[in-house]
């Protein structure tokens, strides 16, 4: 296993932990949820054989502490952290960027804010619910999650969130995929960040309104991805509508919303293929 170069970047209101592996064109991986750089542990080695792969813990997650723990979060600020990493590690170079879930929302904003720096952006199931015709229902969901978290605590809020994200499939009795041992250990370690995720990331990121005209102009460099097992779920619906409204292709990836964790080998192979396919 390759030993990464590990360092920190001082950003506005936070210190960002990042890791660099490999050589070749720059590839920035932006994690969603609470996993941080560790989310990519099972795919990063293969990607680093022909890319300079940058992973990091988003601000407030893992080893990237906030200066003030209760600081309000904003998608633009998270995207600016990603941009500053590109400026530090590959100044002036066009980058390939992959983001999943909330990380995909940060990747979309990065692409619209700094299109000159993006060679390809792959957004895996960004929960951009504001593009949906029933967006008002999802605003109400976010409000319920916040209120439940405030009045009842973390686990009830997570239950409300999970039921809302499941969408049309909420009543299905679906077996949960068994995680590989290393992935299960990473998930357990990330539990400490769940209060921050539910209290700060969910409400801010799920209320984000993507700049559809700018994304449409970037459609030849944009790939919207969705899980093969996610049909009917909220992030899949949002990804599908985003692809339709921007003219970007919708690519199916192995597994569901956390296919990166449950199907890492197949997921990594699909990502490599999408990254190396010539732009339309």
UniProtKB/TrEMBL annotation:
InterPro entries for this protein: AB_hydrolase, AB_hydrolase_1, AB_hydrolase_fold
Keyword hit for Repeat: no
UniProt keyword list: Hydrolase
Coiled coil: none
Protein name: Hydrolase
GO MF terms held by the record: hydrolase activity
Gene3D superfamilies for the chain: alpha/beta hydrolase (3.40.50.1820)
Record flagged with keyword Hydrolase: yes
Domain AB hydrolase-1: 25-264
Alphabetical list of PANTHER family matching this protein: AB HYDROLASE-1 DOMAIN-CONTAINING PROTEIN, HYDROLASE, ALPHA/BETA FOLD FAMILY PROTEIN
Pfam families named among the record's database cross-references: Abhydrolase_1 (PF00561)
Organism in which the protein naturally occurs: Nocardioides luteus
């Amino acid at each position: 296993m390759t030993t990464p170069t590990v360092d920190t970047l001082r950003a506005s209101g936070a210190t960002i932990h990042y890791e660099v592996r490999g050589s070749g064109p720059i590839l920035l991986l932006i994690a969603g949820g609470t996993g941080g750089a560790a989310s990519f542990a099972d795919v990063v080695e293969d990607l680093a054989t022909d890319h300079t792969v940058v992973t990091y813990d988003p601000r407030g997650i893992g080893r990237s502490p906030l200066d003030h723990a209760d600081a309000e979060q904003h998608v633009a600020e998270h995207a600016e952290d990603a941009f500053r990493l590109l400026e530090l590690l590959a100044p002036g170079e066009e980058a390939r960027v992959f983001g999943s879930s909330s990380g995909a929302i940060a990747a979309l904003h990065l692409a619209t804010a700094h299109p000159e720096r993006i060679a390809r952006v792959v957004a895996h199931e960004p929960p951009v619910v504001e593009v949906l015709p029933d967006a008002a229902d999802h605003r109400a969901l976010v409000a319920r999650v916040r209120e439940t978290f405030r009045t009842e605590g973390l686990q009830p809020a997570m239950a409300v969130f999970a039921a809302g994200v499941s969408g049309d499939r909420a009543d299905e009795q679906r077996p949960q995929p068994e995680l590989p041992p290393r992935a299960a250990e990473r998930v357990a370690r990330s539990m400490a960040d769940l209060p921050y995720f539910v209290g700060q990331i969910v409400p801010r990121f799920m209320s984000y309104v993507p700049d559809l005209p700018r994304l449409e102009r970037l459609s030849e460099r944009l790939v919207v991805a969705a899980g093969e097992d996610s049909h009917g779920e909220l992030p899949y619906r949002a990804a599908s509508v985003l692809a339709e409204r921007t003219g970007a292709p919708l690519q199916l990836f192995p597994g569901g919303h956390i296919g990166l964790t449950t199907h890492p080998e197949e997921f990594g192979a699909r990502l490599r293929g999408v990254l190396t396919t010539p732009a339309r």
